[in-house]
Amino acid sequence: ALARTGGPPVRVWDLVVRFGHWTLAALCRTAYLTEGKPMWLHSSAGYGVLIVIAFRVLWGFIGTTHARFRDFAYPPREVIAYLKSLLARHPRHYLGHNPAGGAMVFALLLSLCCTAGSGMALYAAGSGRGPVAAAAALLRGEGLSPSGKYPRIGGEDFWEESHEFLANATLGLVLLHVGGVLA
User: Does residue 32 contact residue 41 with C-beta atoms inside 8 Å?
Assistant: First the structure.
């Protein structure tokens, strides 16, 4: 993508970042809308998400200038100051991610990793399949903790609720992301 800076256009987002972004969007949409039916499509989309994220993290260290994490990793005080300036309708303009956009990149990457991880744990706990199936015996602890108050970490219900919560939280972040882009 090109940015206009008053002079000639400047290339900001390289092809790897753009392709990864839209591939991630398509995979997330597929995973969210299938809700596990058919499981092969849902889980394939989830694994695809992890592959794209792994490549994006690598690209965040070795990629082009604006793709690198150091270009948009701002301390929390700068993110808050930027959001205040945005609300006051006097935001500073950035070439690349602004502080809020940079924070959103990290939030989405973390949220997507947690969503995919909880999905793999659910798949292993429920069917003994998937990349973490070797740990399925630890994940299958059905029922309540010895105190009877909390679900056991590892029970299928725990992972199902966690996965659903994280998927919906990720969707909320995506909606905030789209709103931020529009703003």
Answer: no
